[in-house]
Amino acid sequence: MNSSKKKIAYIFWTLLAVAIGLGIAAGVTRTAQYAYAKLGSPGKELFASADRAPIHIGLPKIGKGTKFLTDSVTYKRAETQDAAVAKSPASNNVNFGQQADEDTIRIGWVGDITPVDTSKMPGTFAPFSEVSSLLVLPDITAGNLEGVITQSDTSKCSEGEANCFAFRGDLNFVELLKNSGFDVMNMANNHAFDFGKESFSDTANALLAKQITPTGAPSQVSIVETKGVKVAFVGFAPNAGTNPMLDIENVKRTIADAKTKADIVVAFIHAGAEGMQYLHVTDSEEVYLGENRGNTMQIAHAMVDAGADLVLGSGPHVLRGMEKYKAKVIVYSMGNFFASTNLSTRGLLSLSGIFMIDLAKDGTPKAATLVPLYLDTNGIPHIDGVETSISLVNKLSTEDFGGNGIMFDDAGVTQIN
Fold this sequence. Notes:
By secondary structure, this protein is an alpha/beta fold. It contains eight helices and 20 strands.
């Protein structure tokens, strides 16, 4: 073999070795996402990156009505399902594989959803295609919208400002949410005013235009009727302009008001510090980036004491444990549900799920399921056959709440009462 051929052979085998090494590394990385008990020290940053520059989106004006800020919003959910959605892939481990009977109200809950400008997404953008058949199974499916739908270019973040993230999407993203099965969105969170004061009302109007019920404004009680039962949704956060969570008297007063208007009351709580180092629920105040995020356990208990039949949490961007308190269920965090281009989905931040709970028509919990998901590097949810989310939630529930922790079996099902 002459020297030229030797050089070519050397280059070929070197490139092959590098490719094999990269493949092994990728496999190891994916495996490490599931080995939560063996993860090393969490990284310092929660967010991988964020585009702070103004994004131009073609969002039409929705209208000027803003009465939803103080009045209840009521509509009846359509009873039809899109045939294509119904045929999309589902987990083999879901025992709640069909809709609930007429005597049961099923509520679905997922983690944080950061909106995007769909026109800037590459290729065919269908982020919920693998899970939409699950999202339509509850009578009412809810999520936490961590951002705004608006034409405003006035970001809360200055160019280059550290630890500031502003999220914005277009009307087509809202349509994707609706077509995938979402009925209710909590807007009480730290991104409710990412693009100015008007972006909050713009977002609510955009949701209403697609028949998704918003909640989370001060004193707001939003009602969805299904199977002849009125279900009230109230959202709370520690952030200015939203329904104040740190004002316990306000929490009690809003929930008491909801009890007079509905048969079942569901309270959303956006609370707790963010990131992999904040998996646990502690009976103490949590502070993140200088902001008081509240004593999550104390506030959630106060919600139940005030009459909430179900408390659903968001904010930490990681899964947290679940608690049974005075015969009611508290879900402290479902992590991220959709985080395309906005949030980091490495390690524990990739673990997610769909929580479904069956309630009697008087709000008494019967049974619940946790469908395990993971988010890929693009922040898109997929069914997790390894079921790591179930193991992690069980572990955290036991460590944080002892005998009051909610435990799921291998199929992700638990009997409540």
